[in-house]
Amino acid sequence: MARKPNIASKKQPQQSRSIATVAAIVEAATYILTRGGLADFTSNKVAERAGVNVASFYQYFPNKEALLFHIVQRTWDEQLARLEPILTSGDAGPAERLRAFVRELILVEAAEAELRRGMRAASVELHDTPEFKALLARGTALFNGFLSAALGARVPDALDFTVETIAILITSFTERATDEPRPTDHLLRQADFLADLLIARFDLA
């Protein structure tokens, strides 16, 4: 069995200079992934693009897989920051908010598809990481609050089971739908299809 790479960052930057160095490395890695994909994603190329020597790269990341995972974690945080206001805003009805949530989620999943493929190539299953499980727990709690408020007295007895199942359904659906490149309008049609099913299931107004 192949040994899985160490995906933990070596240390967290504390001083402004080291913070700037890590930011430059992350920006360079993201640029390379966006333009050239995994084939061009090497420690040397990232360091060169970031304007630092490769020793500086290894000062913070033991390997390129650890850098990938660092970017994945940052992406997850940014996603949740974009998604949470959609469900918690009172400016729209539950059905409209749910549709907007699923649409936004499928778009952010599509944006991180290259990162997911990179972690799989490194034999890292993101769903097994404590960070992903914590993210899923936060998302489940968010959806629990949304559904409780939207249904009121119609909340099902097994609410935790219902929310857990919906969370698995939505995350699995959006990830599978974005594993291969597809036009945005196609992804949004798929998102609307899933949203329609959930809206009908809970009779959301």
**Count of DSSP H/I helices:** 9
Question: Biggest β-sheet, characterized?
Answer: none
**Low-pLDDT runs:** none
Order of helices and strands: HHHHHHHHH
* CATH fold name of the largest domain: Tetracycline Repressor, domain 2
CATH class of the largest domain: Mainly Alpha
Per DSSP E runs of 2 or more residues, the count of β-strands stands at 0
What structural class do you assign from the helix and strand content?
mainly alpha
Helix content: over 70%
The H-level CATH homologous superfamily of the largest domain, spelled out, is: Tetracycline Repressor, domain 2
Please state the CA-atom Rg, rounded to the nearest Å. 19 Å
Average pLDDT level: 84
The proportion of residues in beta strands is under 5%
Oligomer classification = single chain
Number of domains: 2
Gross morphology:
elongated
The CATH architecture of the largest domain:
Orthogonal Bundle
Please give a handful of descriptors for the protein shown.
205 residues; Tetracycline Repressor, domain 2; 0% strand; 2 domains; Arc Repressor Mutant, subunit A; single chain; mainly alpha; 9 helices
